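Quick note —
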Amino acid sequence: MNPKAQDYIDLHHYPIVRPDSDVFKSILQNIQSELAQDGCSVVKGFVRKCCLPYLVAESDHAAPHGHASHSRTNAYFTKDDENLSKDHPARQFFERSNAFIPADNFGEGSALRAIYEWQPFFEFIRRALDEDKFYRYEDPLADVIVNMADEGNGFPWHFDTNNYTVTLSIQNSEEGGEFEYAPNIRRSSENFDEVSRVINGTSDKLKSLVLEPGDLQIFKGRYSMHRVAPLKGNRPRYVAIFSFVEEPGMVGSPERTQQLYGRTLPIHHERAGLRSDNYID
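Predicted structure written out below.
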């Protein structure tokens, strides 16, 4: 029997199936206020605690198919450009050690996919973001994925490829793994000066938070630079990522898809260059 999203989501506290209710409207108002302020909102305990072991088991089962990579990368996942000055943020490279379990490991029978494809969930996220142009990401390797990290792993400063990222914390490591971000620093331009300040630790815009298992995070990572601090302990950190975009048909670039998942599919080359903006990544 395929899992049902409504069995996992705490519909008592978050009645997303009753969009006309006062509780739902209040939740939306709070989320929209937080997103307007700094591009990030956390919905505490969105998934019921009793269901978390099933999501951990699903992640454990798919973990051997994760693509682990150890590389040096900049905030834009681009190659070094010697035409730029040596102190340009696009020429600042850092160690990246991480693993992503691609979306094609979460097919029919996956609870994570059931949540992602459930229309009330889609409408909840769309309305929270107050977007009319709103679509599920069509990348078959990246629409529903799990970020998996072990001791010593982390993710250096970067921007997301897609405009809206929705994450669900499934399991934390014993220590570390704080989510740090600089809100909305790339709203109207690349803002390289502020990016440099974030990288060298002099920015006054940084915020930090710890997501607990079951928490849902709505984050505008296309505009807010962010990273995950290194982890400690033997327990892997699992975070599911549900991706939404502003234009239909969008997928990841061939270069970045290869970096993150260790492979590409024909669709990545067929749709290369299809973007909703002109940022360098």
